[in-house]
Structure formats: C-alpha cells, structure tokens
C-alpha cells in the first residue's frame, strides 16, 4: 500500500477534526437558541399556575446537563485528535514504536512524542497547553466525580482555570459549568488543533499550508 504524503495526511486530519469541532459549535448554538426560547416561553407565555412552577427546575437542571455534554464531547474529540496526530506523526517519521509504548498520561505521551522523539518545537503558550489540560480535568471531574471538587484529586487545576476565566463556578466542594464553560472549551480546542497541525504542516511542507485562523468554511 503506497504511503500517504505526510503534508496531505496532516492537512486532511486537520480538516476532519475542524469539521467535527464545527459540528459541536453548531449544536451548541442551536441548543442555546432552544434554551433562550424556552426561557422566554416560561417567563412570558406559560400558564401562571400550571407551567411557571417548572421554570426554576428548567433553569437550574437542564442547562448544566447540556453544557456538560458539550464539554465532554469536546474533550473526547480532543483525545481522539491527540491519538490521531500522534499516529500520523509516527507513520510520517517511520518510527518503530506505538503511541501506547510511551509512558504517562495521554498529554505526557503526546508531548514526549512531539518534543523529544520527533524533535518538533511545541510552543505550549501558542497551543494554550495549560488551558487544554484544565479543560481535560473539567471533563474528568464531570465524568468521574459528578462535578464534586471535594472528591477530585486534581481540583486545584480546575480552580486555577476558574480563577483565570471566571468559569466554571467553584465553591468549597462543587464545580458548576455553564454556557461560558462550553464556549471556552470549544475555543481552547480550536486553538490547540490549529497549533499542532500548523506545526506538523511546517515540518512536512507541500501543497497544503501554512494554516491560517480556522474558519467555518474549513
């Protein structure tokens, strides 16, 4: 089987990842529109005795569930892209190893492969590395600790993220995500993907690149 041109491989992977991220962005926009319409209905049109009593339940319960699902889906996409990028890099460089041969978390494996094995200059500021780690820990807390910071070992990472951006809201024991958190998750992931794929396309020049700021047309 002929080997795929690395420039084409990385550009194609970038387009695929960006398209899936755009799908999540569009879903979020539609969901936010639905929430706003429902709020207006409950506040202005709902029967005062029969329906309006459900407004607090709707406002407090449904939005966090929705935005949690977007954050979790975005983190899943991010993890898939980390693995996909790593496997493409291994293939492009004809490396005699597998991604899982590396030690540490998925981010530690990725950084080792990119910086130490492939000798690529990963600018952690440009790709918002710390923010990306924070996003992943928010996802982990939602999935494994139901948003309970008191039960999550890396709560300090989330609190630092919250202090920087004002979201998610954190009290002594609980983390609460909202529309700002899910929007930020998408923005961070977009920057990260553009950063790593720009690095790869610069390393493997060809017909595609350099990447510009990701647009909806990508």
From TrEMBL:
Domain of life of the native organism: Bacteria
Protein name: Uncharacterized protein
Organism from which the protein derives: Methyloradius palustris
